[in-house]
Fold this sequence. Notes:
The structure holds two protein chains of two kinds. By secondary structure, chain A is of the alpha/beta class. Chain A is 43% helix and 20% strand. Chain A folds into two domains: 1-92 and 240-261, 2-Layer Sandwich (Nucleotidyltransferase, domain 5); 93-237, Nucleotidyltransferase, domain 5 (2-Layer Sandwich), CATH 3.30.420. Chain A has helices spanning 35-49, 80-91, 131-141, 145-153, 166-178, 183-205, 221-231, 244-260, and strands at residues 2-8, 12-19, 22-30, 60-64, 76-77, 97-101, 106-111, 117-122, 211-214. In chain A, the strands form two sheets. Chain A has a five-stranded mixed β-sheet with strand order 3-2-1-4-5. The radius of gyration of chain A is 19 Å and the shape is globular. Chain B has one domain (15-429). By secondary structure, chain B is α/β, with parallel strands linked by helices.
Amino acid sequence: MITAGIDVGAKTIKLVLLEDGRNLAQRIAPAGFDTGSALDQLWAEVLAAAGGIRRDGIACVVATGAGRKEVAGADDLVTEVGAAAKGACFLFPTARTVIDVGAEEGRAVRCGDHGKVEDFAVNEKCAAGAGTFTEAMARALEVGVEELGRMSLRASKTVPMNAQCTVFAESEVVSLLHAKTPKEDISRAVHDAIASRITSMVRKVGFQKDVTLVGGMARNPGFIDSMQRALETEVLVPAEPEFVGALGAALIAAERVNERA
Amino acid sequence: MAATGKYPTRPLKCWNKAKELRQAYYEEYRTARERGALRWAGGAWSFGAVPAGLGRDVYSLTSEPYAASIAWDRKFSQECMEATEKKGYARDLCSYMRNYWGSLILDRYAFGGPFPKPDFIWQDHICCSHSKWYQVVTDMEPEIPFFSVDVSVGPHRELDANRLDYVVGQLHDGIEWLEKVTGRTYDDALLVEAIENECRSTSLWAEVCALNKAVPAPLDEKSMYSLYVFGTLMKHDPRVVELYRELRDEMKERVADGIAAVANERCRVMSDTQPPWAFLDVFRYLEEFGCVSVGSLYTFALIGMWEVKEDGTWGPRTTPIEKGIALTSRDQALRVLAEWNLSKPEWQHFYSPHLKSEMMIRIAREWKVDGVMLHYNRGCEGLTIGIAENRLALIEAGLPVMTFEGNMGDEREFDRGRTQARIDTFMETLGLRRIAV
Lengths: 261, 437
């Protein structure tokens, strides 16, 4: 049985094709302004990569993400929280806390067996605890996002950053630059600030080991380091963390087919 | 009768009567002066039975429900907020208070015409805003006399004679003050009548809510908001007693006939504190999942009076009349009134969030709820303080809890899309998918 999961996020769309739990193909593309066209392109690439499978040979398609309602032809929808938990616990069955940080939202999820969501917290009305924040800070520091993460690991001291929003944080970064604070230390401060916000959400839902970090921000080694220091524990990071939501949606699609049978 | 869902449903028979009574309340207040009648302003929690002793032609405008009515009208509310902020008042103050002040500053009544100024203010200081609310009003309108009763005597379970005396003494002073500022002679018989009506109406409302323990729930919380309001407008008025008696009888009928508020009920939740009044459609959104909000400590017990019955469950408090107590003197009547009000469940948690948690867990169990939606209401310190403690206690009691941020009276602090997204996730955690409605 082949199923598909589509994650329409704030910045990117991810599509994962599964056959009985085995990953057949996956692709990512910028969401842009035309979700439909971006998805058509993704479908073509994924189906080709899976060896020419036909779209009508897919038993069930489940969409997730902020733009999930825009997915034409989806058989069902699932929330970002539900999809992330399902995907993360599939990859790491011992995970009980899933942290999902994407472009615009950070989420903390406490899970039971098989990724069943027991409690969740989502950041409120602000991107200061998510990936867009790091992009803004990278611009302020005039470095690439990838470099921002690596720089953070070379920091020699911890600098507190107090601002709670992207706009004020940018002013704070500029002030730190004027004070001749090394960019490495500022980079760590940025990641520590995000980690601090995410950690308070994790504590709100109840921190239980193992902890897994998914979403695009889990690509950032500086952020992973900050999260591990904030939680005082190792976090499990999948090889391709940005696909975990789509993976979860594809797994849920398989469950839907089994329910129908 | 519609029977498209799992259960039969039908509209409430007394709905139109309730709507007419609410309209009459605001209209009677507006036109009182034309008839030589008296108008007073004060909180929904104030001892409204006391001014009733001034005559049968005394009308009130209670500030919180009035401000909630403004909040429902988002355009007017925005204008009120801006007018208040322009005067220099901070945006994080009670949003009811700011809507009310805005209406006064703009000299516009939410029900048409200029703002009808009261002849006097009869308030009680239940939270840090309540007396300040009218202190500001008298700063703007210094000719309006203002009396406020301090009720900070601790939770009801600790009430003793001295504490009761403290409140009753102020009510005696208040009656002298009312005579002085209105020039009227006080009538104790009218006071007794008003107290008896208040006890009846607030006990009847509790009985209505207790009937919602039934599955399916005969009443949904969104509808409850339109009905409980009479207890915040004029709980001492015989028309409210009559309406609640009719509603209670109708609820009994609905329970007996298995009539549901939500035809596809398959999940029950409860909420907490005032909702974001401009966005009550959130409750209709729940119904898309077959979920009904059956009430809350707020809707049950802001005006409802409760007691623990012999079987250990919550039920309507037995009124003094039902106990055969005759009110024979002003002092005795005031003591009954003060004690009755101080037993209000919603009043208790001003002293400790643990008292509120106990009551919430009781409601969750007795009303058979599957989950709790907590409104982190930035508009009301009084009812929201300690809500994070309540959340922890509910989780510890085994209840799934969802929180959402918002504001009862300031729509700028509520995000419908985000809240619906959160509801989607919460419903999913409860194992519910959207169903066709």
